[in-house]
Design a protein that fits this description.
4 helices, Topoisomerase I, Chain A, domain 4, about 55% helix, elongated, alpha+beta, Gyrase A, domain 2
């Protein structure tokens, strides 16, 4: 089997790695630097009706003032589950209940809180790296299968190098994105 016969779908791998970077940027957008924003709740999911559901599908999310987010939960039975998900989210915000409305006062960012947020950003980046490595493994598995069908060693090496090069490029992009976000968080 020659290189012409086996074509690794690098466009697909690129598209999927771009997806991992997009997800990371979306998660980073949720890490606000001291200002309230509805997007900060996007990564949080609640175990509702037997499946993990985004908060914005369980209630109305509002930002009535610069340091406050409110969630008007539609189903009274879900209020405690939404509150629990918020407490366990790692956002470091203490939800306050007022009937079916959950208020989230956004604390002023002190040094300790900034450090916590940079750790959360680091966790998000690690999830992105793991996704990219999993995609690398998928690509390598495709090459292995082609090798079993008589793909030459030279051709296999060529494709393995391609996949590794893409992986390195995207891991570097994750690291650069993380570094920029951490600098943004630590800026006073």
């Amino acid at each position: 089997m020659s290189t012409e016969e086996f074509m690794l779908d690098t466009d697909d791998l690129t598209r999927r790695m771009d997806g991992a970077i997009h997800s990371l940027r979306t998660e980073f957008a949720s890490l606000r630097t001291g200002r309230a924003a509805a997007s900060m709740l996007e990564p949080i999911h609640v175990d509702a009706y037997g499946q993990m559901t985004p908060i914005n599908q369980l209630g109305t999310v509002n930002v009535p003032e610069p340091r406050m987010v409110t969630i008007n939960v539609w189903d009274k039975a879900m209020v405690s589950k939404v509150e629990k998900a918020l407490r366990e989210s790692g956002l470091g915000i203490n939800p306050q209940l007022n009937g079916t409305i959950i208020m989230l006062p956004i604390p002023e960012l002190n040094e300790e809180r900034r450090r916590e947020l940079t750790k959360v950003a680091g966790q998000y980046a690690e999830h992105a790296r793991v996704s990219i490595r999993n995609l690398r493994r998928d690509g390598m598995d495709q090459i292995k299968k082609a090798k079993a069908k008589n793909l030459s060693e030279d051709d296999a090496k060529f494709w393995e190098d391609e996949v590794q090069e893409m992986t390195d490029k995207y891991i570097k992009l994750v690291d650069q994105t993380l570094e920029a976000k951490q600098q943004e968080i630590m800026q006073v």
